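Morning run. Coffee first, then this:
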Amino acid sequence: MKKKSMHSASLRPAPLRLSAIALAAAAFLSGCSFTPAYHVPATPEPPKFKELEGWVPAAPADALERGPWWTLFGDPVLNDLAGQVQVSNQNVAAAVAAYAQARALVAGQRASLWPSATVSLSGDRSGTKGGNRSTTVTSNGTVIGGGSGSGNISSNYRLQLGGSWEPDVWGRLHAAINQAQFAAQASAADLAAATLSAQGELAADYVSLRSIDAQRELLRASIEGYQRVLKYTQNRYDAGIAPHSDVYQAQTTLSNAQADEVQLANQRAQLEHAIAVLVGKAPADLTIATAKWAPTVPDLPVGVPSLLLQRRPDIAGAERRVAAANEQIGIARSAYFPSINLSGSYGTSGSVVSDLFRASSAAWTYGLSAAQTAINFGALRAAVESTRAAQEEAAARYRQTVLTAFADVEDQLSATRILVQQQELQRQSSEAADKVEEQVLNRYKAGQVDYSQVVQAQVTALNARRALVQTQASRQSTAVALIQSLGGGWHAQQ
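And here it is:
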């Protein structure tokens, strides 16, 4: 008996040893990964920008203000509005929520590395309803049995602890975590891109609004001059010196200028409404007072093209999506191998609640399971090929994003250089047109020319003034676009 007892004792721990071996094997194999080694897709990296040739900022980069990029334009109203975008813009708020969701998904994927545990407690009460029992009458008249029974009632309570764990034998779970992390990083880049886009759009709209203010100021000054000329022409007509057609021409010039001013007022209102939406307000809640416009254009330290890959959030987001797609290949490859699951449970039961805490009523189970698809007619291979194609697609989109970014910078550099030349020519044209207008008007008053020449000189001068303002606004808008193309600036904290 003693020998038999020792033999039985040596057999009981065997399942524990098997589980320990399984756990050790799972831990050893959890280092496996079928994800390809990731390399950032190769992209063109020119040593310099083509349109930067011969264009050098007047101020060194160290002299520039290190605050948010819009402060370089020196407009306190713009500073206040741009600062509200990151807080109140709804597109930015949506991007913030999407980033929070992506981070939560990462936390959820990380939790899959650990065992899960469950606790269940149940109880039930059952019974049988009593019925009429049979009766027997003896020879002497005695009745045996009869009447109705009360039935049987029983209670049963159960308490069970369970757990399961899927060891990351083939690296699928780690690949899923990495994929979620890369997706979260791409979402962070999308947030930065959304913020930059909204701030850039606001700055461009604000520049257009101030340009309209400047043009309306020019029109108001011209309208005052046209009114004086109309009165002067009317007096000449009343005195019989000038024909009635001169009055009609003067009135036409005045009315056209007034109509242009009304049209600009409508455009300004629309821009103000657009700015209100960008800062997260209803149009009725935002009024931008008319102010004198200072067409400041900052000198931008463009740097070398390789820095562009570090600055632009859309490039960063596209590259992170390539990395996420690369992890998906490893996830698909791991499906070639069986999924392994370890499970166990411990529970007690009894007819009364106190029985749940007695060791004599306890029961336990644990086990190891593995499942593998035997036949799928090439479905797994197709899934792997699909993930490879998706990774190649993401890489192509990344390269296209980089090429587009280089083109954006080149476009804005070209526009910056050309607008500097254009502004100088427009300035010269405006000054010359003002002199012609003044001289022609004096000659008309002296009776040397007819009024049609005055009208032509007035229209030409006004158009030249407005063209100069529009060119100045274009330079500011181009500076905003260049900052966006460079990824939002060059400040030290970024």
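The radius of gyration is 42 Å. Good start to the day.
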